Amino acid sequence: MAITTQRSTDGRTLTINIDGRFDFSSHQAFREAYETGENAVAEYLVDMRDTTYLDSSALGMLLLLRDYAGGDSARIRILNCNGDVRRILAISNFEQLFDIH
Amino acid sequence: MNEHTHLDDEALAELREVMDDDFSILISTFIDDSAERVSTLKKRFDAADAEAFSKAAHSFKGSCINIGAPRLGDLCLEAEQMGRSGDLTGAEDLLASIEQEFETVKTLLQPYLASA
Amino acid sequence: MLSAIPPGSAVASGSDTLKILIADDSDSDRLILQAMLRKQGHEVVTAVDGMDAVERFRAERPQIVLLDALMPRMDGREAARRIKALAGEALVPIIFLTSLSDAEELADCLAAGGDDFLSKPYNRIIIEAKINAFNRMRMMHATVQAQRDHIRERNEQLLLEQKTARRVFENVAHRGCLEAGNIRYLMSPLSIFNGDVLFACPKPSGGMHIFLGDFTGHGLPAAIGAMPLAEIFYGMTSKGFPIADVLREINQKLKRILPTGMFCCGAMIDMNLQLQEVEVWNGGLPAGYLIRTDGSRVRLVSDHLPLGVLPAERFSPECVRYTLLRDERVLFCSDGILEATNGNEEMFGEARLLEVLDNCDSPDKVFDELTLAVRRFTGSVESRDDISLVEVAMVPEKMLDVHQSVISTGLTGPSDWRCAYELRDETLSTFNPLPLLLHICMEAPGLRLCSGQIYTILAEMFSNALEHGILRLSSTLKGSASGFSRYYEERERRLKQVGNHFIRFELEHISQENGGRLLIACEDSGPGFDYTHQEECPQASAPYGGRGIMLLRQLCDSVVYCGSGNRIEAAFEWSFQQRSMGKH
After folding, report:
1. How confident is the model at residue C518 (pLDDT cuts 50, 70, 90)?
2. What top-level class would CATH report for the domain A2-100?
């Protein structure tokens, strides 16, 4: 499991890549990825291209990110979900809270 | 027969520093102790108990080395080895040497006793 | 409550002043070593031979021991062995004082428990270095041991706390009516600590609510969330609240008490055994299945966010309603089954679950075949603890004996009373008066024995007044499967437009010898209907559902229509001896 981030050149978009299993062990790293300590970021992209698995604590972490990013006004897109990841997000009906692609 | 000196002055100087006021007590303790060890060695020899002879010599050797009497320590080592070999032939001469060296050391230590 | 390692334990005594035992039969050697160690600030205890050394060690408990190898009475090796034995778990470094030069004898000393050597003549600097090195080792050992003891102690305490927590939890979140004949389930005994919960509770109207949940996280946090959930579930269900109210309350409570990121995936089932209907709500659990006797099945997908995520105003307790014939069943599992792995790290998955359902020729075998398939799949792999599975079958109510035994207690309370309760306008569509009305009736001493019957009477009267009297829905719609859902869609639609209407209940209780008589009247603001031919042909043309009126007649001693047919009056007589359902 590795979490990496990139900022767009204007600094407004933060992309978080999650490589491998996204579960409780990623808790600290995931938080550090988005808690940048500044509020220039307007949009968050969570790239799941390399995410192999997602458990319910990962769902909880996504909710924490949503809270951090402003709750109902948060702009968060979850990108490149594979079948398993998409299934788990769908069971929990997270498309009601996130923009899932 | 032995290139070591009777007394190691450097060692004694260090001991004096370590012991402070108790230095003279240490010297007199060594002298009393050693007198007893010499007589113990004699008794073991008379009893022809080579192993006990060797052990007594070993202990004596240790305190000689510590106090700074290297030549006496060397003689004790010889006695220890002789005892360990189980053959006490010639030990009589060695005992005499030890006794004589002890007397020398004792004489040489007299000033240290007074100086305390 | 985590506490730091207590002060004054072995770790704290690792100051630079040590108590050191010197054992040497040579007085002068002992004097020298003693002087050197004292100069370095240590406290020195001396012994003149091995036996003396062991005694001094026992009495003084020094932290480091310096032993001459050759001593009278007991030599250094034997003394070392005894001292190590006395020291037990504590690390007491033993350094041999020696002028031994023979390798074999040196090895002998080590075998006896010696940690190092110090050769004569003594050198202050070497002695200091060795003492310091061994003191560091000793302190490290003591620290590790203190931590180990601390962890062990904490762990024992934690296990004890878990045990207590589990007992408390089991009292609150008891399994309810899970042992009812129509429910089968599989739950690990430690399930509360993996966040899975399963509750079942009989409804006063008959039938039951079942809840299967899976909290995010493990351990105590998950169990803590389960407690209020259980309280709400059992409390509200047994008071007669409908499934939507229970779900709404659970969601609101969990949203309030759980930190963001913690929530409960769950499914709730409302079994209505009289009407042979089931309502299902699924928020975040893997799809459940409705398994029909004709071999078909319905997938009960999660169409809501989990409980505790959305604020109350955005939460939807909307359920899907199905008819369920006798022996048909509803099956739900938490993700433990789908994620059960075999030796090759493959997951059981939904495809295998469907395969089991496909190959099963009878609904009553599904549970066994599914559990068997999962066990076979995981094979030698240690069976996972977090497999939670529940199956509820539709059976005639009389086959079950789930209703709580009621003790006729002190018999105080209002036994002769009368009250009227009227609901008006929008309240009709937003408020369910049944729990309140039932509560009022239950205050009459002894009447609690009949809570099921009374709830059913109230519920039938209320829904008939609302659905037929006011909303003018025709029960003939409910005759077919498609009409059935159309009926409820229509009900929702009309309910939103209801205005200028009322439903009034009048309740009166009169005590009688060994029991009482409860009179219930229900009147609505609708136009009524022609009830004059009702008696001859109860099923025809009456706006009352055929099943509804039959049920009322079965439960009550008399049922009459009044006015323009917009008022119904029922009398219910009861006695302490007569507790069973059905009177005629």
Report:
1. very high
2. alpha beta
Average pLDDT for B15-36 = 91
List B residues 33-62 in contact with C (Cβ-Cβ < 8 A): 33, 55, 58-59, 61-62
C:322-341 residues touching chain A, CB 8 A cutoff? 335
Please write down the HEC assignment for all residues of C152-194: HHHHHHHHHHHHHHHHHHHHHCCCCCCCCCCEEEECCCCHHHH
Write the CATH number for C225: 3.60.40.10
- Domain hosting residue C555, numbered range: 417-575
Token duo for residue C112: 């006896």
Q: Helix B9-19 and helix B23-46: axis angle, to 10°?
A: 120
In a domain, C497, yes or no: yes
* Residue to test with chain B: of C25, C26, C40, most B Cβ within 10 A: C26
Give the closest-approach CA distance of C78 to chain B in angstroms: 17
**How far is residue C72's CA from residue C102's CA, in Å, rounded to a whole number?**
20
Domain boundaries, chain A: 2-100
Structure tokens at B52: 């006990």
Task: For C219-265, write each residue's pLDDT tens digit.
Answer: 777 777 888 898 899 989 988 889 999 999 999 999 998 888 889 99
| Chain B residue at shortest CA distance from C100 | B58
- Minimal-distance CA residue of chain C relative to B21: C35
Q: Which residues does residue C17 pair with via DSSP β-bridges, in sequence order? A: none
- For chain C, the domain total comes to 3
Name the closest residue on chain B to residue C31, using Cα atoms: B26
Burial (0-12, 13-18, 19+ Cβ within 10 Å), C497 = exposed
Instruction: Report pLDDT for C156.
Output: 87
Chain B residues touching C39 at Cβ < 8 A: 18
Q: CA dist C161 to C148, C169, C201, C228, Å?
A: 19, 12, 28, 19
Per the CB < 8 Å rule, is B26 touching C31?
A: yes
C28 touches chain B (CB under 8 A): yes
Same-domain status, C393 and C421? no
Pair (C474, C535) in one structural domain: yes
The reply to whether C238 and C324 lie within a common domain is yes
Give the 3-state secondary structure percentages of chain A, helix then strand then coil, rounded to 5: 40, 30, 30
Interface predicted TM-score of the whole assembly (ipTM), two decimals: 0.92
Write the CATH number for C82: 3.40.50.2300
Please check the confidence at residue B29 and state whether its pLDDT lies above 50.
Answer: yes
**In the predicted structure, residue C553 carries a pLDDT above the cut 90:** no
Residues C379 and C518 in one domain: no
Would you say residue C120 lies in a domain?
Answer: yes
Q: Are C213 and C283 in contact (CB under 8 A)?
A: no
In a domain, C56, yes or no: yes
Residue where a domain stops, chosen among C348, C369, C399: C399
DSSP C471: S
- Residue C9: inside a domain, yes or no? no
**Is the pair C, B in contact (3+ CB pairs within 8 Å)?**
yes
B41-77 per-position pLDDT tens digit: 999 999 989 999 998 999 899 999 999 999 999 999 9
Domains of chain B: 22-115 (1.20.120.160)
A42-78 residue pLDDT tens = 999 999 999 988 887 788 889 989 999 988 899 999 9
Q: Is the pLDDT of residue C539 over 60?
A: no
- Put simply, whether C284 touches A (Cβ < 8 Å) is yes
Same domain, C313 and C340: yes
| Closest CA of chain C from B3, distance in Å | 18
Chains near C, with 3+ CB pairs < 8 A? A, B
